[in-house]
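Internal tracking record. Fields below are filled automatically when a chain is submitted to the structure queue. Please do not edit lines marked as system-generated. If the sequence contains nonstandard residues, flag them in the REMARKS field before resubmitting.
Queue: standard
Priority: normal
Entity type: single polypeptide chain
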Amino acid sequence: MFNQSQLDGIDHIIQANLIESGLDNVIFLDMAGNAIAKHDNGKTQLDSIAFAALAAGNFAAVDAMAKLVGETEFSLLFHKGEKSSIHFSKVTDDTLLIAMFNKDISLGLVRLKVAETIDGIKKILTENA
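SYSTEM-GENERATED OUTPUT FOLLOWS
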């Protein structure tokens, strides 16, 4: 599905745009819940395999709800907790980007950095195909 050049580019852009901006964990995954790239800040413990599978299931459930209310999709999901929050974004028809961050990071910054990262990933996927 992805060549090594694409994977290297995706790793670089996630690290530079999201982890270095202060996010705790980032997982780029396919809709089946398979992690394609995963990064963390070294300060958290996360079972990324289980998390990716659950995230894909969550996104699929919300996608089904969107169709029930007449939407083609909800391309962005956000869950806010007391200490941590999770931002889900659809990258392509087949992939998601999950960003986890703590209360010290603003949602606005996350949304900006995620949008930049998604644009970068799409560019990598088209240029290095």
